[in-house]
Design a protein that fits this description.
CATH topology of the largest domain: NADH Oxidase
Number of helices: 12
Shape: globular
Strand content: 5-15%
CATH superfamily of the largest domain: NADH Oxidase
Structural class: alpha+beta
Helix content: 40-55%
Low-confidence stretches: none
Order of helices and strands: HHHEHHEHHEHEHHHH
Largest sheet: 4 strands, antiparallel
Distance between the termini: 62 Å
Number of strands: 4
CATH class of the largest domain: Alpha Beta
Number of domains: 2
Bound molecules: flavin mononucleotide
Strand order of the largest sheet: 1-2-4-3
Mean pLDDT: 94
Length: 275
């Protein structure tokens, strides 16, 4: 029996597990890929070719970049032993061992520092928190373009913020010079169909889309609505706790940041002055 493709209405409603919003009047393949996104945490061992990698990177480099500074770089890690050492760092995420490529996205000021040093030119503006933000934002925009490109090719991905649990060890493993900081990892590979990961519903649009001015009072109702919808998803994935319990636990304390409470210190160790 042939499966019928989900309609745009189905895909949008699936994103919220809600009968609203009503079906879109516009649709195209890009919207299709975006709405189907789900993180993949189980991979087949099939390789991701160099050709595909180059395409992901050209998609990443097609992202906007603040003032065309292009203050990011990415390290493609394929070596299974290196991946195993990195997998041992951030809380034992076995999918790092399975996926054929780990892309480590960095905020990179070393390139511009080198240019400035070659010309004996000042680069004092790079020492400000603002510039570090630019590096982090640029890296994120580039990575997300790579995610969309990968998913459009039928590949799966998952971000690994957990690389920031041990930034010094990650930097040592990847030979990162000062002024280059690993923002997050991104696994890319062929999804193992046995994982059966579903599209995770998001907060209702009313929670995140404010018209003209911000409305905090409405948030409680939107979250209550969301809890009832995501409960179904959690039950299917055999996960306990409500969304509220999960997010509050994630940010409850210094310990719950799993080492990332040291970020300011780690950035300073990597030559980011954050003035
Ligand atoms: C910056 C960033 C860091 C993340 N870090 C991790 C991680 O370390 N491990 C993991 O399994 N998922 C990680 N994720 C994936 C999120 O958990 C996931 O995107 C979120 O739960 C929504 O699920 P979905 O991507 O399937 O829609 C990360 C996502 C982002 C954007």
């Amino acid at each position: 029996m042939t499966q019928t493709a989900p309609t745009p209405t189905h895909l949008v409603q699936q994103r919220y597990r809600a009968p609203e919003p009503s079906g879109p009047t516009q649709w195209n393949p890009v919207l299709d890929v975006l709405h189907r996104h789900r993180s993949v945490r189980r991979y087949l061992t099939d390789p991701v070719t160099d050709d595909t990698l180059r395409l992901l990177i050209s998609a990443a480099q097609s992202a906007p970049t603040s003032s065309n500074l292009q203050v990011w770089s990415v390290i493609a890690v394929r070596d299974p032993e290196r991946r195993a050492r990195l997998a041992a760092l951030p809380g034992n995420q076995v999918h790092i061992l399975q996926a054929p490529v780990l892309l480590v996205w960095t905020a990179d000021f070393a390139r511009l520092r080198q240019l400035a040093a070659d010309r004996e030119a000042p680069l004092d503006g790079a020492d400000y928190l603002e510039s570090s933000y630019v590096g982090f934002i640029d890296a994120a925009l580039a990575a997300q373009n790579a995610v969309v490109a990968a998913e459009s090719l039928g590949l799966g991905t998952v971000y690994l913020g957990a690389l920031r649990n041990n930034p010094e060890d990650v930097a040592a493993e990847l030979n990162l010079p000062p002024q280059v900081f690993a923002v997050f990892g991104l696994l890319v590979g062929h999804p193992d169909p046995s994982e059966d990961a579903r599209v995770k519903p998001r907060l209702p649009q009313g929670a995140v889309l404010h018209h003209e001015t911000y409305d905090l009072a409405a948030q409680r109702d939107h979250v209550a609505d969301y809890e009832s919808r995501i409960a179904e998803f959690y039950a299917e994935q055999e996960l306990s706790h409500s969304w509220t319990e999960r997010v509050l636990a994630r940010l409850a304390s210094e310990e719950s940041l799993n080492g990332r409470h040291r970020l300011r210190e780690s950035l300073a160790n990597h030559g980011f002055r954050l003035k």
